[in-house]
Amino acid sequence: MSIALESALPHARDHRDDDLQDLFTLLRQPSISAQNIGVQECAALEEALLQDAGFTTRRLTAPGHPVILGEWLEAPGKPTVLFYGHYDVQPPDPLDLWLSDPFTPTVRDGRIYARGVADNKAQHFSHIAAVRHWLRANGSLPCNVKIMLEGEEEVGSPHLDTVVAANKELLAADLVYTSDGPVTDDRYPEIVFGVRGDLYVELFATGANRDLHSGHWGGVAPNPILALARLLTTMIDKQNHVTIEGFYDNVRQPTPGALAAIEKLPFDTAATIAGIGLTEMVPPTERSYAERVMFQPTLSPAGIIGGYTGPGSKTVLPAKASMKIDMRLVPDQTPDEIFAKVRAHVERYGEGITIERSDGGMLPSFTPVEHPLGDVVRAALRAGFGAEPVSVPSAGGSLPDSVWTQTLGLPSFLVPYGAPEQANHSPNESYRVERLWQGIETSIHLLDLLGDASYLEM
Ligand SMILES: [Zn+2]
């Protein structure tokens, strides 16, 4: 343990009341991005907090709510960590289900109850507090620190990629570190190394110029629902293998390290499947649940609309039908590439069927579990939480994490400090006080470990 670490940790432990009061100041300020309530005021509070901790601050030019960058860059030759967080929160509704006011932080049974405490104010506050304790105890940091806080995460981060792409030099770093969301298993701290991307499309089939009497026209006029069903079965086979030409061309196989990490996950597949009322997974069963969710792309019809679905019967031959399809993408697939392949397939096999892209889609993101900085993050978590961390090679879902790995070209580590039961987005959102202290100490250990010269030969 370095001498500086030996003074930073006790400083944190001796000033927990100050940390709690400063976090409460953030929590008392509503910052509801969806309704533009209090967002500017919260941005100003964050700037003041960063300055008080020892950062210089600036606002990045951005079209939406303020994006704040805090910087402490006085450790030449040392690595730079870029922390990312968000200060906006979800609307607190329904208000009558809250046991205490969502913007009056209240501690009950060792938990802080407030809207936005877990998602994400206490989590990014942990990084700010770590820097503050270190600077107050030692005067300077062992590595360089940047922290970027945005105010639009809860409305889907619509400008994040634009802001990051326009500020590559200001955001230059050696790694990106994001504490958000809960861990999967309360017993173990967790590092998530990637996310799947996604692509959402809608298919439209048309038949006659109006709905028809099925007795007069059935079997004679085209049925758009049948056309969609037939097209769908040309896209995916009984083994759930996507049969669109080139769909798997850019799929990167999991590394040996990723497969080994999957083996070690404390995850009970049989119990999880039983929990949704099933006894087995659909094919291909030779790959594990985790490997499929992390490293296999999917094509899944999300909904189909057409014809008559009301009570009783109506003998109708519909004039049109539509179907929505979602796809989860893995490295190195891209939404643009996959959309082009799906469109070519529809043009070839879906006569008269048109396709539209529902949104831009999201790129997958990937940092190898073998990355040397992953060992640094693991060591920080082990020290801060007192338990061996699990490495999750990829989350099944999608987040805009590619802004770090692709736009900035950096390794990105998602390191949730929160617990599974914290009720993000729900009434009575909460955060365990103990996890606040563990998160602050983990961030302090991270600064120490990044400052260790042995990690510079990467
Ligand atoms: Zn959220």
Written overview of the protein:
The chain is of the alpha+beta class. The protein has 2 domains: 3-195 and 364-456, Aminopeptidase (3-Layer(aba) Sandwich); 197-251 and 297-357, Alpha-Beta Plaits. The chain has 14 helices and 19 strands. The strands form 6 sheets. It has a 6-stranded mixed sheet, with helices on one face. β4 and β5 form a beta hairpin. α1 (3-14) packs antiparallel against α14 (433-451) and α3 packs parallel to α4. The longest helix has 22 residues, at 117-138. The mean pLDDT is 95. Bound molecules: zinc ion (ZN). Zinc ion binds next to loops.
Which key features would you list for this structure?
single chain; 458 residues; alpha+beta; Aminopeptidase; Alpha-Beta Plaits; 2 domains; four-stranded antiparallel β-sheet; 14 helices; binds zinc ion
CATH secondary-structure class of the largest domain: Alpha Beta
Q: Compute the number of helices.
A: 14
Strand content: 15-25%
Give the total of domains. Answer: 2
Low-confidence stretches: none
Ligand set: zinc ion
CATH architecture of the largest domain: 3-Layer(aba) Sandwich
**Helix proportion range:** 25-40%
Mean pLDDT: 95
Radius of gyration: 25 Å
Let me know the number of strands: 19
* CATH fourth-tier homologous superfamily of the largest domain: Zn peptidases
Strand order of the largest sheet: 1-2-6-3-7-18
Termini separation comes to 22 Å
The main β sheet shows up as: 6 strands, mixed
**What is the CATH topology descriptor of the largest domain?**
Aminopeptidase
